[in-house]
Design brief:
By secondary structure, the protein is mainly alpha-helical. The radius of gyration is 14 Å and the shape is globular. A 3-stranded parallel sheet has the order 1-2-3, covered by helices on one side. The protein has one domain. It is built from 6 helices and 3 strands; from the N terminus they run H-H-H-H-E-H-E-H-E. The two termini are 24 Å apart.
């Protein structure tokens, strides 16, 4: 969720291209997600995720969608970073047979094999490649 500003821009771009786009609640409400606030503790993040039911909300949006787009920008010095929540969402989408698009190539992590096995479509930053 640290890339929520980018999510807004990508959402707008995809809608211009004729796609219907679902985004996390924070992006819809135009509020800064707790994950992006400096100094936020893990305990505060856990409390927010439970209170606002973020994980279940993301899963519901995946269920009703045709595909997901992972905005895997560089983070923590890792090009194409995909963290725990995003990997979980990829697996959920894969289980439902949804197309998985990645903005950038799969990063080298301990779960790269699993990500490659899901056969995501890498669009190299070009949203016009989403079909």
């Amino acid at each position: 969720m640290q890339f929520y500003q980018e999510m807004k821009a990508i959402k707008d771009g995809l809608e211009i291209l004729g796609h219907d786009v679902l985004v996390p609640k924070e992006v819809e409400d135009n509020t800064i997600p707790i994950e992006a606030l400096p100094g936020t503790t893990d305990e505060e993040k856990i409390t927010a995720k439970i209170e606002y039911d973020f994980i279940r909300e993301h899963f519901f949006k995946i269920q009703v969608s045709e595909a997901i787009l992972i905005l895997n920008y560089e983070k923590k010095g890792i090009p194409g970073y995909i963290g725990g929540n995003t990997f979980l969402e990829m697996g959920y989408a894969f289980g439902f047979g949804k197309k998985i698009y990645l903005m950038f190539p799969i990063p080298k992590t301990e779960y790269s094999v699993e990500m490659f096995s899901m056969q995501p479509i890498v669009i190299d930053g070009d949203i016009t490649k989403i079909k």
